[in-house]
Amino acid sequence: MNTYTCYLPDDAATHSVGEKLAKLAQAPLRIYLSGPLGAGKTALVRAFLRTLGVQGAIKSPSYALVEPYNLSNYFVYHFDFYRFFDQNEWEESGFRDYFQENAICLIEWPEKAGGLLPPADLEIKLSYHQQASPETTGRRIEVNALSVNGQHLVEQLNEQQ
């Protein structure tokens, strides 16, 4: 199985998936998050980081472009490329150096960097999703494995479902 999908009725369900991913994640890992504004990308990453033990405020990297977290055995870098206007900003930023063997990289809006990013292990797509009635609008998450490491994570997510 290369895909994990589920309906997320509320923020708690989004946080739950972020927590599950964090418990399974090991460096090196590259996770690309896509979806419209407000679909839950940053909420999922915050739950992921909290589960890994990050204390204090977890800021959105919308303005800084990257927020680094130094954990005991590896680094986690949370990128947000929403404000990129040109894919060359990726090259000029020097962010390529962050994609190391001892790092987990979480990238929101990866499409803004064009094809210049290293390949993803996981691609997470979040979207708004309406169930049978208008009162039950939530989110849909689709996690696609794009590498052997990603496939291992997706298999474990599916086993937990």
Give me some keywords for this one.
7 strands, 29% strand, 4 helices, 161 residues, seven-stranded mixed sheet, alpha/beta
Layout of helices and strands, plus pairs?
Blueprint: E1 3-8, H1 11-24, E2 29-34, H2 41-51, E3 66-70, E4 75-80, H3 88-93, E5 103-108, E6 122-130, E7 137-145, H4 148-160
Parallel strand pairs: 2-5, 2-6, 4-5
Antiparallel strand pairs: 1-7, 3-4, 6-7
Helix pairs in contact: 1-2
Notes on the protein architecture:
This protein has 161 residues and is an alpha/beta fold. It contains four helices and seven strands; from the N terminus they run βαβαββαβββα. It has a seven-stranded mixed sheet with strand order 1-7-6-2-5-4-3. The longest helix is centred in the first third of the chain and has 14 residues. The radius of gyration is 15 Å and the shape is globular. 33% of the residues are buried.
